[in-house]
């Protein structure tokens, strides 16, 4: 099998431009016919996998006022001709796609008032790229009764294509069938979209600014020692975390760093003795003056927010190596943003929502993509906004997304492990955006492997970092 390429996600406007560029060369309606035939194929495949057959099964379309409904109606006509009992609920009867409705009717499709009890699958053709806000009343009333799997056309209705904001109410789909290229919502709202299938309709979208690394990308970019490697070529990361009162953060952050690469970890801080007890391979120093050279710093987890912490942060950010600031470091930074704004070397900030609010002066809200881009641009630093879906934005607006796919990492100390992993990757020379996204992927996978169905603490997560890297490398 070939290398699955990095996944790219496009804004509605970029899709429209691509469609227009191709559409001009084609007869009217060709793109919609292609979309509909791909959609019908996906629905048929789903019927076959669930019920062993296509012929004789029952599908209901829910149709809105635009081309999204047109796609569904033309697909319904195709399915009808394959022996599926297809019915359609029109949520805006006067504005349903005229040609689609005519094709649907002439293939024997029935228009009904509500989803019949016999329906085995529902197709959501209410609204697509032009959708705004939650499902409107008529469609919301229909979907409130739906108890069978939903195949969404393009995007689940009520989910904003460009921001991934999941409005209430909105459709929750088992499968989303999209056309030509992925939409941003598919990366940001994975739970609402379910499995995403892309139908080739012969368009070429360009200039994606939201991307997701494949497992293979992460594995291939992961620093591994080669024949000419030394601990220095693999990167020396300095960890400034924890305190004698809270040594745990220093241990967990060091654990992430030690496990992530074969380079070297230095630790600076008052938890030095405890850290070295846990990891004899860590070279410790009580303060920055005795620390020795590093290729990247991680500063902040459990490190306090007092004047000494500020002074330490100021000195670290004044170096010319990449710096990751997390946790307490972010709280300090919220009062002194100039320390980052005026810095011209790679910088990665890794806030959770509360720390984001301290830094940005407002919570990320529902539109997390705009929020993280805004903060990265304002501070001139890469920002990793933690969550089940983690977003890593560069100041220029380029974003890498990671869908954890599980919530096992929602446990105390897990963030310290993440910053250790990402710091080690920075020390190995990865850019802040890729280091953040790759660390988030391995962290989520480690949480899943460690949990294996039962809750874990962060120490267990840290122990699973190596198995996680190994399992990514096994992906072919
Ligand atoms: N272009 C192409 O070449 C191809 C396009 N393709 C397909 O076209 C789709 C885009 O179609 P589109 O542009 O007709 O808009 P669409 O999303 O159907 O919305 C229609 C209207 O719905 C309304 N509305 C808004 N929000 C709403 C809500 N929350 N709940 C309910 N209603 C809501 C709003 O009208 P309003 O009522 O506000 O006047 C809006 O104008 C695209 O997603 C893909 O499926 C494919 O065939 C491939 C080729
Ligand atoms: K839809």
From TrEMBL:
Its cofactor is K(+); Mg(2+). It catalyses: (6S)-NADPHX + ADP = AMP + phosphate + NADPH + H(+); (6R)-NADHX = (6S)-NADHX; (6R)-NADPHX = (6S)-NADPHX; (6S)-NADHX + ADP = AMP + phosphate + NADH + H(+). (6S)-NADPHX binds at residues 67-71, 128-134, 154, 249, 302, 352, 416. K(+) binds at residues 68, 124, 157. Residues 214-472 form the YjeF C-terminal domain. Residues 9-209 form the YjeF N-terminal domain. Its EC number is 4.2.1.136, 5.1.99.6. Keywords: ATP-binding, Isomerase, Kinase, Lyase, Metal-binding, Multifunctional enzyme, NAD, NADP, Nucleotide-binding, Potassium, Transferase. Bifunctional enzyme that catalyzes the epimerization of the S- and R-forms of NAD(P)HX and the dehydration of the S-form of NAD(P)HX at the expense of ADP, which is converted to AMP. This allows the repair of both epimers of NAD(P)HX, a damaged form of NAD(P)H that is a result of enzymatic or heat-dependent hydration. In the N-terminal section; belongs to the NnrE/AIBP family. Belongs to the NnrE/AIBP family. Homotetramer. This is Bifunctional NAD(P)H-hydrate repair enzyme. The lineage of its organism: Bacteria, Bacillati, Actinomycetota, Actinomycetes, Mycobacteriales. The gene is nnrD.
């Amino acid at each position: 099998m070939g290398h699955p390429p990095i996944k790219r996600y496009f804004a509605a406007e970029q899709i429209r431009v691509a469609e227009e560029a191709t559409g001009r060369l084609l007869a009217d309606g060709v793109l919609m016919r292609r979309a509909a035939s791909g959609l019908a194929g996906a629905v048929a495949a789903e019927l076959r996998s669930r019920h062993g057959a296509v012929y004789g099964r029952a599908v209901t379309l829910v149709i809105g006022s635009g081309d999204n409904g047109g796609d569904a109606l033309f697909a319904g006509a195709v399915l009808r001709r394959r022996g599926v009992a297809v019915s359609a609920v029109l949520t805006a009867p006067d504005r349903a796609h005229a040609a689609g409705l005519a094709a649907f009717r002439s293939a024997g499709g029935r228009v009904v008032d509500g989803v019949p009890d016999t329906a085995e699958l529902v197709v959501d053709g209410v609204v697509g790229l032009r959708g705004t806000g939650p499902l409107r009343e008529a469609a919301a009333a229909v979907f409130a009764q739906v108890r069978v799997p939903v195949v969404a056309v393009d995007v689940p209705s009520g989910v904003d294509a460009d921001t991934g904001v999941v409005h209430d109410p909105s459709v929750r789909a088992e499968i989303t069938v999209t056309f030509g290229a992925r939409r941003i919502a598919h990366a940001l709202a994975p739970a609402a979209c379910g499995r995403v299938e892309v139908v080739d309709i012969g368009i070429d979208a360009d200039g994606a600014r939201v991307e997701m690394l494949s497992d293979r990308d992460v594995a291939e970019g992961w620093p591994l020692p080669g024949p000419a490697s030394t601990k220095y070529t693999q990167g020396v990361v300095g960890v400034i975390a924890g305190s004698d009162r809270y040594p745990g953060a220093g241990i967990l952050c060091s654990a992430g760093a030690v496990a992530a690469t074969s380079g070297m970890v230095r630790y600076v801080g008052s938890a030095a003795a405890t850290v070295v007890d846990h990891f004899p391979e860590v070279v410790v120093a009580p303060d920055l003056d005795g620390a020795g050279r590093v290729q990247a710093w991680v500063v902040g987890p459990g490190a306090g927010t007092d004047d000494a912490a500020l002074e330490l942060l100021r000195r670290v950010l004044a170096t010319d190596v990449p710096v990751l600031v997390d946790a307490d470091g972010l709280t300090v930074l919220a009062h002194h943003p100039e320390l980052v704004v005026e810095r011209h070397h790679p910088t990665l900030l890794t806030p959770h929502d509360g720390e984001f609010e301290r830094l940005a002066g407002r919570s990320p809200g529902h539109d997390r993509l705009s929020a993280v881009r805004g903060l990265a641009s304002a501070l001139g630093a890469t920002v990793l906004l933690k969550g089940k879906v983690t977003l890593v934005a560069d100041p220029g607006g380029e974003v890498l997304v990671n869908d954890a796919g599980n919530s096992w990492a929602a446990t105390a100390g897990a963030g310290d492990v993440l910053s250790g992993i990402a710091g080690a990757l920075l020390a190995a020379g990865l850019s802040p955006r890729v280091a953040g996204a790759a660390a988030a992927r391995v962290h989520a996978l480690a949480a899943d492997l460690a949990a294996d169905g039962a809750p874990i603490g962060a120490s267990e997560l840290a122990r699973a970092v190596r198995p996680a890297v190994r399992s990514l490398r096994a992906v072919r």
